[in-house]
Each structure stands twice: as C-alpha cells, then as structure tokens.
Amino acid sequence: MSKLCKMIKMKKTPKFSTRKMNRCPICGRPRAFLRRFNMCRICFRNLASVGQIPGVTKSSW
Asked: Which of 3, 44, 50, 52 is most buried, by the most CB atoms less than 10 A from its CB?
C-alpha cells in the first residue's frame, strides 16, 4: 500500500500538467501503470482473471 500523503497528493491537480503522476486507484502503485485501463498490472491481472474487466480474456496457447 502506498503512503497516504502520496495518495492525497495524487488527487490534487498539479500546478503544471507535466507534474501529473499516474497511480493505480486501487492499490496506489506508481509503476507498471496501464493507461488504457487506468490501473497497475497487478490489479489488472487480478480483475481480468476473475472476469471483471469486459473484453479481456486470459490467453493460453
């Protein structure tokens, strides 16, 4: 879990647009962020395997 101060800082609009930092809204992880789904790779994998993300299926070959 990320620090509470980082989560609060993320929600405020920055002074300049380049200072915006992408964080996962579920767990707060700053790295491995998927912009298309607005979450980190770990949360994406968990939700996709349960079937809660529409249009995403687990591939196997």
From this structure: 44
Domain residue ranges in the chain: 1-9+23-54
Task: Indicate whether 46 pLDDT > 90.
Answer: yes
Spatial separation of the C-alpha atoms in residues 28 and 7, rounded to whole Å = 7
**What are the pLDDT digits (tens) for 3-43?**
788 878 877 888 898 888 888 989 888 899 999 999 999 99
Q: What is the dihedral of CA 21, 25, 27, 29, to 10 degrees?
A: -20
